[in-house]
């Protein structure tokens, strides 16, 4: 695997790569929830409805960005940001395909999302996640996010995090 690297770039939320990653992300988090709480996978019809309903238009400019990470040129992960107010961006859809986990993609995607949030004018970034997504909670803590009180009323959110963003880094 020597020489394989991640590249991250902004991409339309409805590009083929973004749509495939959204499907993989939603399928995994939905199945995890249903397996934990009801002992079954997501009903296929429900899955299709929710994927269509959460297409991601809020991750389009001017108020949002969707970033796609490619590992050795192949789409392998995503992260999105959207402005909640002029100073606050929300981090969402942080996902790396299971077969590419452990190769450094998630921290790179989060860092790129933080830069995108700064470029949108945000001074802080917030996110929510669930208790069963222990890998996500550990990642955010490692990357300097602090657990806080709720910033939304999402029925599936159980943990909320926040990070103050410094000024945008100079691009060389």
UniProtKB/TrEMBL annotation:
Sequence ranges assigned to domain N-acetyltransferase in this UniProt record: 20-166
Alphabetized SUPFAM superfamilies for the sequence: Acyl-CoA N-acyltransferases (Nat)
Keywords per UniProt: Acyltransferase, Transferase
Pfam families cross-referenced by the UniProt entry: Acetyltransf_1
Tagged with keyword Acyltransferase: yes
Keyword hit for Transferase: yes
Family annotation (CDD domains): NAT_SF (cd04301)
PANTHER family linked to this entry: AMINOALKYLPHOSPHONATE N-ACETYLTRANSFERASE-RELATED, AMINOALKYLPHOSPHONATE N-ACETYLTRANSFERASE-RELATED-RELATED
Protein name as annotated: GNAT family N-acetyltransferase
Species of origin: Streptomyces tricolor
Organism ancestry: Bacteria, Bacillati, Actinomycetota, Actinomycetes, Kitasatosporales
